[in-house]
């Protein structure tokens, strides 16, 4: 029997994990590997800075090492904290949501716009895209200027997300939008209908890649 695919939320906010779990429903198919969404309870409540990202790594790696039954791991935080350490710690495939989401967006459009939760997240995201060699495909990244907790709570989140996404499409000429926070997963389908252009949820992208790797 194929072991579960673990979707790990590196922050300790369970509301984010609940949203991720809801976004996984279409991937839960009879005969496919089960998908478990987990919270790193020792992690920061939200990953909104480089310090938060660094603090999440050790407990994330401990959880991955403890789950020897898993067939693949998804790091469900847009800056992919600890991805190199995770790949070093286990022999199973490890997928980061930023890397997976951006690769998916490149297959859906030419000019990629990213929605970040805050201005402070953007530099961290850009550095990672530069490192993996795809920064030139991003036309802009614009912030919601909300905290992870605020986006997960749902209060005014969608209205702000729609406004920022419209700016990316109309002003920056993006033809595909990437949701740059795991807490935004639940809004993907609704936003795509309104914008009438592809909207990528990076966690779903990572799970799709994991399923392909495991089932192959």
Describe the protein.
The chain has helices spanning 14-23, 50-66, 83-89, 97-108, 119-131, 148-153, 157-170, 188-195, 202-215; strands at 5-9, 35-39, 72-75, 94-96, 112-116, 138-143, 176-179, 199-200. With 216 residues, it is an alpha/beta fold. The strands form two sheets. The chain has a four-stranded parallel sheet, sandwiched between helices. The protein has a four-stranded parallel sheet with strand order 6-5-7-8, sandwiched between helices.
In short:
With 216 residues, the chain is of the alpha/beta class.
Shape: globular
Mean pLDDT: 94
How many domains, in number, for the residues?
2
Instruction: Output the radius of gyration.
Output: 16 Å
Summarize the helix and strand pattern as letters: EHEHEHEHEHEHHEHEH
CATH class of the largest domain: Alpha Beta
In whole angstroms, the N-to-C terminal distance is 14 Å
Biggest sheet statistics: 4 strands, parallel
Name the poorly predicted regions: none
- Secondary structural class: alpha/beta
Tally of contiguous helical segments: 9
Which sequence of strands runs across the widest sheet? 2-1-3-4
Report the CATH architecture of the largest domain.
3-Layer(aba) Sandwich
List the helices and strands and how they pair.
Layout: E1 5-9, H1 14-23, E2 35-39, H2 50-66, E3 72-75, H3 83-89, E4 94-96, H4 97-108, E5 112-116, H5 119-131, E6 138-143, H6 148-153, H7 157-170, E7 176-179, H8 188-195, E8 199-200, H9 202-215
Parallel strand pairs: 1-2, 1-3, 3-4, 5-6, 5-7, 7-8
């Amino acid at each position: 029997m194929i072991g579960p695919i673990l979707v790990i939320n590196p922050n300790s906010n369970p509301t984010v994990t609940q949203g991720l779990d809801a976004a996984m429903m279409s991937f839960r198919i009879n005969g496919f590997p089960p998908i478990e969404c987990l919270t790193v309870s020792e992690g920061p409540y939200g990953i909104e800075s480089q310090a938060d990202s660094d603090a999440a790594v050790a407990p994330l790696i401990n959880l991955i090492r403890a789950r020897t039954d898993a067939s693949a791991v998804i790091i469900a935080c847009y800056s992919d904290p600890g991805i190199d350490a995770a790949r070093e710690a286990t022999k199973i495939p490890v997928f980061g949501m930023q890397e997976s989401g951006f690769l998916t967006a490149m297959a859906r459009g030419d000019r990629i716009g990213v929605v970040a939760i805050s201005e402070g997240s953007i530099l961290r995201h850009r550095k990672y895209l530069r490192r993996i060699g795809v920064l030139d495909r991003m036309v802009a990244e614009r912030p919601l200027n909300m905290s992870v907790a605020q986006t997960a709570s749902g209060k005014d989140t969608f209205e702000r997300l729609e406004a920022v996404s419209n700016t990316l499409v109309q002003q920056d000429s993006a033809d595909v939008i990437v949701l740059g926070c795991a807490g935004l997963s639940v809004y993907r389908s609704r936003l795509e209908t309104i914008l009438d252009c592809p909207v990528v949820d990076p966690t779903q992208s990572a799970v799709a890649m994991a399923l392909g790797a495991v089932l192959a």
